[in-house]
From TrEMBL, chain B:
This is ABC transporter ATP-binding protein. The lineage of its organism: Bacteria, Bacillati, Bacillota, Clostridia, Eubacteriales. PROSITE patterns: ABC_TRANSPORTER_1, ABC_TRANSPORTER_2. One of its GO terms (molecular function) is ATP hydrolysis activity. Keywords: ATP-binding, Nucleotide-binding, Transport. It comes from Candidatus Limousia pullorum.
Amino acid sequence: MKAILYMTRKSIKNWFLDLLRHPTKLVGVVLLVVIIGFSVLNVLFSSDYSESMGTLTESGVDIGILHGIYFLLLFFLGGAVILKGLKSGTTFFTMGDVNMMFCSPISPKSLLVFGLVRQMLTMLLMAIIFLVYGGMAKSIFDLTTAQAVILIISFFLFLIISQIVALFLYSTTNGKPKAISTAKYILYALILLPVVLILIPVIQNGFTLSSLYGALKSPAAEFVPLFGWMKGFTFGILSGNVITSVVYGVLMLLVVGLSLVFFMKADCDYYEDVLQNTETSHEMRQAVKKRGMNNTDAYLKNRKIRIGSKGLNGGKGASTFLFKHLLERRRSGYVLFWDMYSIIMIAVCGFVSFFIVYSGDDSEVLTSEATMLILLAMASYMQLFFSVTGDWARELSKPYIYMIPDSPFKKLIFASLTSIIKPFLDGVLLFVVAGIICSASPLVIISSIIVYTSFSCIYCMVNILTDRVLGFLSNQALSMFLFIMISLIAVAPGVILAFVIGAVSGAPLWLAACVCALWNFIVSLVLALICKNTLHNMEMPF
Amino acid sequence: MLQINYLTKEYGKVLANDNISFTVNDGEIAVLAGPNGAGKSTVIKCISGLLRFKGQIFIDGHPNKTVEAKRVFGYIPEIPAPFDVLTVEEHMEFVARAYSLSNYKERIEALLKRMELWDKKDKLGKELSKGMQQKLSVCCALLPQPKVLLFDEPFVGLDPHAIKELKNIFIELKQAGCSVLVSTHMLDSVEEFWDRCLILMNGRVVAERTRADIERNGEDLEDLFFKITEPQGSRL
């Protein structure tokens, strides 16, 4: 244990020293700390706050939405942690750990705990991004400061509990494929169960928004082990319901206690399982450091690829990159660029549009234009989080893009074109489907597609610009965070202008949105010109 | 011809290359030798245009980062980087198209057969062993028939047949009038065909010899290398 603590101490110290030697990284970290600090202060001091917790008051916004969002977060993040730990708890470690610590006389359980703690801290760092939304949640849902703080802390707590449960599951199932399958199915059932418990009252009481909110707030969903219990515990505290919070709190404590007890008793012979997964994970990390990886690469590494038809079928000079990317996407299992993200986005937006159109009473009816505008805003915002890396970033880790004899500007454009084509095709699918549901006019559908594509252009160029200006940051989370912030700043003027024009001139919403698209395209062009010689001045990461 | 004038490369405060100047003439094979961390790979990467640097580098009379220079040089990296989901043959097609080559199919077949990759032409990049990836790198670099070639540790990972074939390729390139620069630790592997040797240490060229110099002085290249790079009295 002493050796682990020594290694941890020295790693932290050397990380700080490295930060001082690299001013760009230091600026990024300071910026992150400032934003987190601002978010915390925003949560603590924004709007009027009360000293006492009180009960949840229902303002203009139904508190059921907060229940739903919190539940979703528990599932997506907490559930992902547990599933990941179950499937590949072996990626808690690095090759350095394998080579130096596994052969040493350190107990395997100590190592497993160390791996878990390190993993937990990384997760917490990434989850800090949710602090930014704390102040927003407070003002929208009329929460007191204490309530907002409790909500955030309980979410972080759940991430930690998820890691402990993942540790227990991994230690008891590793090396036993049947046990792993059983645990996975139980987990999937736990995730599906609340969906069913929420849908039943919605179907019984009518398919309306108010029945959905009611179902989200109902105690039934809190019966679901782990996820429901945590929600019950948290909202029990928030609403001042002592009995509920105590009951679910005790249940969660039991889960944690039993997980730890079983973990201590489990036979932890996991080194062989670790080896291959860690080697693969190491190669991926090296490639990520070199910016050679994006989601496609990580997905492809261990996947069986069907070759299908061969050959690039086009390309000369810089345009060869476009044809290569088309071939790679086809082999990655994409159909016309549509992938899992496309499905998720269409499912979420389709669900929302369906509810907006078919739920609510007559006084709440929105026009088709307004519905499409809401979807456009939602989809454009979601796109931001999925467009951090693209084919362009992947090319930078290989020498070809630097060496191929063509102008740097042409190589930049052709290598990043798929980052614009894909969102365009996603937009076509999404807005045509949504337009049919909402009975929107073709003009509204087409303008939505154009505006959505314009956002992809600007995100792509901001990505390239941040790489150029900030250089490559080895911390991917920090890099992503800065990309998101700069993108939001870049699109803000266009969005504001569109709203002002729409409100002042009385122009149709679709026309006002096109003003936003125009802004986005102009800014994208300017950024592309600024980055014209990026390749000429860049260094290949080694 | 490859001409390097006052090449300097800094990584922060570390001076990886310090005022390096040398020339590799047409039909000449130059070897960059030196201990680990001497800056050999950095020189190769600067010439390839993969790093920023101070100084001047001319390839066939053109600055190395110009399109004209890129058309005429090839680079074989130390660590091969194939595309995971492109087949061997598609890698070659990619290079042919990127370099706007014409009538390249026969040449692709000839190169792949020579490096014993023709029977693996439908294998994906991620399915290749390290040695095969290295051979593919060589094929891709040779396809555009460059006039200047840069090899960074080319023999690492190759089987004996491939090493023999690569040596034959070096001789053919020399006879065809190409300028070849090879960075290697394995001095004995380049013994038969080197024309100029530059020994680097701590980012500087500490010795430069031509084959004629060595033969005239009765020196042994390996002995010279050890004499220069080892501190006095440090041999075991």
